[in-house]
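Re: duplicated header lines in exported structure tokens

Our pipeline writes sequence and tokens for each protein into one text file. With two proteins the header for the second block appears twice in some exports. Here is an export where it did not happen, for reference. First protein block:
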Amino acid sequence: MSLFRRLFYRRPPDGLVEISGNILVFDHCYSMDLLEEDELMPYIGGILKQLLGRYSIDSFMVFNFEGSKKDNQIASIFSYYDMCVMGYPRNYEGCPLLTMEMIHHFLRSSESWLSLSQDNFLLIHAEHGGWPVLAFALAALLVYLKRYSDERKALEAVCKQAPHGLAELFSPLDPVPSQLRYLKYVSKRHISPESWPPVDKMLNLNCIIIRKVPNFDGQGGCRPLFRIYGLDPLAPNDRATKLLFSTPKTSDFLQLYTQEECEIIKVNVHCPVQGDIVIECVSLDEDFEHEVMVFRAMFSTAFIEDNLLVLDRNQIDILWDTKHRFPVDFRVEAIFSDMEMSTAIHKSELSSKEKESLSKVGDAFSHLDWSSESDHITNEESKQKGLQREHDGFDKIPLEETEISSASAENSSRSVQIHHIEPAENHSSLENVHYSQPEASGPNIQGQLFNDASAQEEPEVDDTKIEPNSETSRDAEAGDAAAAAAEWSDNNSDVFLSDTPSSSTPSSPPKFDEILEAGMVETRSQLTELKI
């Protein structure tokens, strides 16, 4: 290594901060002061001239984390020096984080570039307001390159470069809990690098449970409203994030929960999710107008284990000065279930009008608490997966919630009907997706019934006893025969519909010839009376 290079490592050019090795960051990213537009060009241009005076332009890969402005001024400055810039957003639905797809792109690009030559450098810039996501990206890179084995220490090593209070200036919520969660996702790459990152799972977010009510009304209670953000898993070609779920702002759905009256807040969601998801909870006043942020949490469905996500008060993003509002044993639980592909395809092919109709049906019943049924199912799944400890509170519905649970249990049969609602005009789409459903492994009762019926030998009809000159007798004979056959079929239908052979042998049905003879005898007697 040359003396000049050793001097470069010892003291990087003015205006740059060396994070680790060949990773350089512009120092004004750590500043609370906003550079004016007419100051950016000479400031950044002077730093780039120092770098290009020592190294080739091909030695640098430039990343930029965008700020609040979208004028691409930074990109134009670097393009003036013939340097390409890869830009990343400053947040994801309010969280200063990148999606797993972007994280993977950033880490792989950085690793590949640094491994090509020891003279290659990463030049990283963040616009005003982009510091929180820049800190996360740098910590993720340090963990990915195994320069830190502890996620929290890696994040602290980056944050200590910035003055105190910089994160509070650019982020109203403390983003560290969600950032640490995603740094742990990055650490899992060292366990199984061949399968990282895992494929995003499509799950159904059944419900969200809050244990121990936080105090956001000044009297030991809150009126929570939940919002779910993410990509629509039923529209894979649409890459724009959407509001997937929101609690309706009506008195039927928004209730005041107090610490004295209840221990659990359960919100039914029933929303399909996939990929990077943000759960946001706010508390409303009694007029449903003023909102106060309770918490926010970002996660990836690819890393959900056992269809359960449990977060305590140290694992959610909250306002910087509101930790005392949460009880020590506060917890948030998100309960998921596997999403059947046939159901997902069916929902994706529904028209917007049909989706709106189904959504209204779900909203009409979502405020009901089917605790007696859903809690039992959840406990059974928990026992099978060894998670009974996490769900033991499902059976404890305190005070007034007990009355709601007992009342809703009486109407639990309606829940089954809701899940089977299908628009009448959508039968054609169901036929189109039938091929995706797995073949039933059980016996085909309809097919068995059809085969059994066709396998029986048709009785031969004795035509010699029918009088050809009497049309009335023919009609009467046919009618009586059909009625007798239908009566015998009704009385013996259990023989065909039974899946298992009966222990008692059913009585043999009368022969078809005997039925016809009976009909002919009766008809002849009627004709004799008419002739007399």
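Second protein block, exported in the same file:
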Amino acid sequence: MASHIVGYPRMGPKRELKFALESFWDGKSTADDLQKVATDLRHSIWKQMADAGIKYIPSNTFSYYDQVLDTTAMLGAVPERYNFTGGEIGFDIYFSMARGNASVPAMEMTKWFDTNYHFIVPELGPNTKFSYSSHKPVSEYKEAKALYIYNNTINREVIAELKAAGASWIQFDEPTLVMDLESHQLEAFTKAYTELESSLSGLNVLVETYFADVPPEAYKIITALKSISGFGFDLVRGTKTLDLVKSAGFPAGKYLFAGVVDGRNIWANDLASSISTLETLEAIVGKDKLVGSTSCSLMHTAVDLVNETKLDGEIKSWLAFAAQKVVEVNALGKALAGQKDEAFFSANAAAQASRKSSPRVTNEEVQKAAAALKGSDHRRATNVSARLDAQQKKLNLPILPTTTIGSFPQTMDLRRVRREYKANKISEEEYVKAIKEEISKVVKLQEELDIDVLVHGEPERNDMVEYFGEQLSGFAFTVNGWVQSYGSRCVKPPIIFGDVSRPKAMTVFWSKMAQSMTARPMKGMLTGPVTILNWSFVRNDQPRFETCYQIALAIKKEVEDLEAAGIQVIQIDEAALREGLPLRKSEQAFYLDWAVHSFRITNCGVQDTTQIHTHMCYSNFNDIIHSIINMDADVITIENSRSDEKLLSVFREGVKYGAGIGPGVYDIHSPRIPSTEEIADRINKMLAVLETNILWVNPDCGLKTRKYAEVKPALTNMVAAAKLLRTQLASTK
């Protein structure tokens, strides 16, 4: 059996690409410097796969920002505002599309699937002009070929150029095939590959699907296409695909790329179970037509476990990062070919047994408390309208109240302080003093800007999930387990290996300190249970909802402690609630039921006068708006500006929203500073569909990744726009 990897992380084992990108964007290095780092990373990745014995190695999985943006550039589908005049697209146009610039906004960014990865959304319409404007797939194939490594990706001209360069296999990633597609969408897929049939003649074509099962209708259509030589299926998340192959059969002479090694989690593969699956498939498709593979690209997992020198030894034995998964894929291929590495399989079996029997994994008290939750829906006793009235009497906020989402810029000095404290280079007293000074600076800045509801800026936090995971039981942490979220932005997901509980208060000390510095309301800032779950590497030995309920109980205790400490506004971020939505409609209601229930658990016991906020960002929300309403938060702040205000359309269509709502008025993921007039225009569009007394004014997301030189003028303009409209509204009464 041959072996194959769908894709690989491109940031580098120590985020080399991130630092090269940010240096280039800041004007501290040249394009040649950036390209040198990228070339070195590509070569090391290809060599690693080749050395591990992988037969089918992909070449065009690297990206400077996003693979969909790469395809948009390749097709020359550049929106008019970037003034692209043809030819080869360079970094100036490419990064302006991704990030915006001083004069034009960036393209929309969204999460299409159930991952934390953000895609750049193409802007296609009747007037879009296509031209072959980026030769990246071919140049990277030639680069790989020069290293004696082969394989990968699109469009007639590209295919012809790849064929001329000597490519024998081309991989097309088509994850949308796992979704519930309409008949016309499946017809479009068939038409596209039929039209490419002559161009593909003489080439082996792999259509790779992942993230869920391929529906029977789609399976029937794609496996009937003559131009396709092989089909890649996710057999980890696609739990029904094996049965589908057995019942529907598989076309003779075609290759089946079996995704048995999980590309989205960090647990070591259960090799014995995978061998059983592969043997079943081998009996159907034949030994020479079966290829062992990853379930999806490994870009969704951490790079290399070798770099984790501080991780607990027992837990480390349970794990496999991207580099280890490459080895697992090859070991499975060899085993099926009669060359089983007995020592490797024996060590794997021992690790599987260790994890199942370890007393560190199970806490009976936590399990009982979570099980008891199923008897109630945990709603607050009073409806949201009455609660908002009670809260307004206490908070006395103006109409169109202004706030920010939570974080303020994380400077190099701030990161150094946290790093030194963690390394025991400064005392706890010195650390608290430094963080207190930063909080004081952020509070004073917000007061000077005249923001109504303040935040403490989160200077003590490295990451909105990791910070909480470090203070909860059942979590483990890495030093270099970085995963790309978008562009140069990486996250380091915690590992949930056991039952979760809260040993002590996590945020009360800092929130209480911040509130003592101002007479204005200070938000207590928490990350919600669904977001902690979805932005972690989650244990796979129990249902995800059980782990989520455990986290919800831990956050509930924190909410109650914040309220007892005098914090009147508490934000429980659920930025990742939408991205966890299953791709198949038949599975969505169950997920939304337990996810929304988990959020309500966290705040069901607070007083009517305590205002509960939540925040969501960068997903398509319109199809779950009723579940968002069902969360029963007092105020929701939600991304809006970068998605071209699509959120507002749901209210134009008649959905009534009675709680407070703050659709973002400007995009914080771009360095561009919006004018007062632009923000006021956005607020006016919101007022056309939302009641004045429920509308809040805020940015799209937290300000952690921005610089103060960008934040101060942007917030100044935001507050000015809110005041301008307050004056206009007052004059019309």
